[in-house]
């Protein structure tokens, strides 16, 4: 009896040992190798990492505009003047215009205008017709000769205009005033515009509860010069009273647009 029990126990132990080895072997086979690629179905089930949102630097700043207005007094002027002569003969019209323009030019030079400041801007010869009848009748020819003159001493401009009219000028128009050194007023206007922009940006940053950083973008715009003043042709003055010319003042406006970073 005892012998049978010993045999049964030995058989059971052998079975457990063999079974354990088999289980361990199966478990080891179920573990994938580090070099073994995962099945496609398993890889497909892996969650994909979402791309991080990219934030533009233009969305992280404060953009404001600033304005600087500077009043300046012009110290020079540019004016267009000349002669317009009509004559039945084209040749005679051209000769009369040449003589009148020569006298006007000598007057300009005699009043201190330099040759470099006298520029021809128009010269033409055109026929003139009489349309009072059924058919157009050639009446003669017209010559127009105009020069643009830069006057660098405005205080003498009135006397200069009277002088050229007395010498035969029949067309005067397009006076425009300017400053000889616009850079000085430009610097002052730029400083005021930037200070104005900075004050606006600091106020916005304070309201938003953020700290204002350095400027990351700046653009500038300067106002265009004023339009020329039209002046009708003048006849020679009957008295010695000079033509009054008032340059007044000009406002030069500088605009900047600044984007400040947020710290």
> From the alpha-carbon coordinates, what is the Rg to the nearest angstrom?
46 Å
- Proportion of β residues? 25-35%
Quaternary structure classification: single chain
Give the overall silhouette: elongated
Walk across the major sheet and give the strand order. 3-4-2-5
Low-pLDDT runs: 13-45, 232-239
The name of the CATH superfamily of one domain reads: Protein of unknown function (DUF541), domain 2
Q: Which structural class do you get from the secondary structure elements? A: alpha+beta
Number of helices: 5
CATH architectural group of one domain = 2-Layer Sandwich
Q: Briefly, what CATH class of one domain?
A: Alpha Beta
For the secondary structure, the number of strands is 7
Main β-sheet description: 4 strands, antiparallel
Under CATH, the topology of one domain can be stated as: Alpha-Beta Plaits
- How helix-rich are the residues, as a percent range? 25-40%
Termini separation: 93 Å
Residue-averaged pLDDT: 79
**Series of secondary-structure elements, N-terminal to C-terminal:** HHEEHEEHEHEE
Map the helices and strands:
Elements: H1 2-30, H2 40-45, E1 61-72, E2 76-87, H3 90-110, E3 118-130, E4 137-151, H4 157-166, E5 171-178, H5 182-208, E6 212-222, E7 250-262
Antiparallel strand pairs: 1-7, 2-4, 2-5, 3-4, 6-7
Helix pairs in contact: 3-4
Descriptive account of the structure:
The two termini are 93 Å apart. The chain has 5 helices and 7 strands, in the order ααββαββαβαββ. Strand 3 (118-130) and strand 4 form a beta hairpin. The strands form 2 sheets. The chain has a 4-stranded antiparallel sheet. Helix 3 (90-110) packs antiparallel against helix 4. The chain is elongated, with a radius of gyration of 46 Å. Among the domains are: 58-71 and 184-223 and 256-262, Translation Initiation Factor IF3; 74-178, Protein of unknown function (DUF541), domain 2 (Alpha-Beta Plaits, 2-Layer Sandwich), CATH 3.30.70. By secondary structure, the chain is an alpha+beta fold.
